[in-house]
Design a protein that fits this description.
- The protein is an alpha+beta fold and 109 residues long.
- The protein contains two helices and four strands; from the N terminus they run βαβββα.
- It has helices at 30-43, 84-96, and strands spanning 7-12, 53-58, 69-73, 77-80.
- Strands 2-1-3-4 form a four-stranded mixed sheet, with helices on one face.
- A hairpin with a 3-residue loop joins strand 3 and strand 4 (77-80).
Length: 109
């Protein structure tokens, strides 16, 4: 079976608004990350009719305590990011070159 997209990226945009446990959107990163990723993927020619990369919002991915989170399928590679430079590295290295960005990987469980 082949995937419809070469890469499908899910960005956690969960907003818990709880003092007990923060969420990715509470960190103020999710909305801007989604916008940046969509723009960068489009500018790189990775979206649209060729359909190689799809960026989607996700609800809670269950790892918000580890920082703003995204996961890339079909590999199931989990990343945490802190800046546009981190997101740019994911686009350039993983989505364009097929190389995992080791420094941004979340620890496996």
């Amino acid at each position: 079976m082949t995937s419809y997209y070469r890469y499908h990226v899910f960005v956690c945009a969960n907003a818990r608004h709880s003092a007990e446990r923060k969420s990715c959107n509470d960190c103020g990163e999710a909305d801007s990350a989604l916008d940046f990723l969509r723009k960068t993927v489009f500018e790189a020619g990775l979206s649209g009719k060729n359909g190689t990369v799809r960026i989607n919002t996700a609800g809670c991915l269950g790892r918000c305590d580890e920082g703003p989170t995204l996961v890339v399928y079909p590999e199931g590679v989990w990343y945490r990011y802190q800046s546009e430079d981190d997101l740019r590295a994911i686009v350039n290295e993983h989505l364009q070159q097929g190389q995992i960005v080791e420094r941004l990987l979340m620890p496996s469980r």
